[in-house]
Design a protein that fits this description.
two-stranded antiparallel sheet; Rossmann fold; alpha/beta
Length: about 350
């Protein structure tokens, strides 16, 4: 075990990211990948770091460990079992090592997604990360991901975070040879899901408010997670703008639909900068209709030597069709939603 901790086995597979707007089936994709015996599924790593994920371009081990282990105001607001009913995975209880006040970002989702022994793995990581020399942000992230890959005896790692289409330019800078799997879905379904998802709804609130001042947090130079401005003023902004209340304040579907459309436009522009042989797209509706075909395409894209018939049979049984919730709305509300989603739907080739 000591040798495992001190040495990094080099993967022959490139860094691979599942990118999306969120609320479109990408969480399901993470679960399907996690079932594969040779692939490490890293879920919500970048979103767990929220406004600070990409601010520092170089850092030493102590700085990197602080990023991974100390939650700031925005992260505490969003990453809790009430706001993230499905995604938040840390099991609070009388025997838990951490509380809501001191839970590290790495334990929000990432480590509990990988193992029930998450606290022990977190403790193993601390001395290794803190001893790291000063290095680029990409090198620090890659060290962590590769260590986890070796720790769990996998061939490659795949990271998936919600809303990752927006920070694709950062990933491109950090990992020039990376591959990207774009998961997308009918924006009307996504918009309805966003209405019932507190963190995404809060992001839409922030996007809407910032837009009044000509600022778009979905792209550079104001990209959330990269611009230092948001992290500098995060705590006072939460109080000043009443973001705690807005976390639970409903938004109509046409607003979340417009938010989705903007993410799609920006995301497709970002993907246009990636060579065609290093990206693929999975339409959620196709995944549900023919999971065997779509999962085979995904595995073939990731690289050679990953085909596994037992995994394919088990994973293909999980995707399930659900009736679109937006079709239950009044005709007037459907018309408003269609109008809001129209730009994104057209770009993706959906009929509306």
């Amino acid at each position: 075990m000591g040798k495992l901790h001190s040495m990094q086995g080099k993967s022959t597979y490139p860094p691979t990211f599942i990118v999306s707007t969120g609320r479109c089936g990408s969480t399901l994709a993470s679960r399907l990948v996690r079932m594969h015996p040779d692939i490490l599924s890293i879920s919500e790593f970048f979103m767990s770091l929220a406004t600070r994920a990409f601010v520092k371009k170089t850092m030493d081990g102590e700085q990197f460990w602080k990023l991974l282990s100390v939650a700031h105001a925005g992260e505490k607001l969003v990453f809790n079992p009430e706001a993230l009913v499905d995604e938040f995975l840390y099991p609070y209880g009388p025997d838990s090592q951490f509380t809501r006040d001191n839970l590290p970002p790495l334990l929000f989702v990432v480590l509990p997604h990988l193992t029930d022994d998450h606290d022990a793995v977190f403790a193993e990581l601390e001395p290794l990360i803190r001893a790291r020399p000063k290095a680029s942000l990409g090198e620090q992230f890659a060290y962590l991901f590769d260590w986890l890959r070796v720790r769990f005896d996998k061939k490659m790692w795949v990271e998936r975070s919600g809303a990752s289409l927006t920070f694709l330019p950062v990933l491109k800078d950090l990992y020039p040879d990376a591959k990207y799997i774009h998961v997308y879905r009918d924006g009307r379904d996504v918009a309805m899901s966003m209405v019932n998802h507190s963190p995404t709804r809060l992001y839409a609130h922030a996007w809407r408010m910032a837009g009044r001042f000509g600022i778009n947090p979905l792209k550079r130079p104001f990209l959330m997670g990269e611009t230092p401005m948001i992290s500098w003023f995060e705590a006072p902004m939460i109080k000043l703008l009443g973001l705690g209340k807005k976390l639970h304040k409903p938004l109509p579907p046409n607003i979340t639909g417009a938010f989705w459309s903007d993410m799609i436009k920006i995301g497709l522009d970002n993907l246009a900068e990636i060579p065609a042989d290093r990206q693929m797209s999975i339409r959620y509706e196709d995944l549900v209709e023919n999971p065997t075909l779509e999962l085979t395409r995904m595995i073939d894209f990731m690289g050679p030597g990953l085909n596994n018939e037992a995994w394919l049979a088990e994973a293909a049984a999980l995707p399930r069709y659900k009736d679109p919730a937006w079709k239950q709305m009044s005709q007037a509300d459907q018309d408003a939603l269609n109008k809001a989603c129209a730009p994104g739907l057209e770009l993706l080739g959906y009929e509306f």
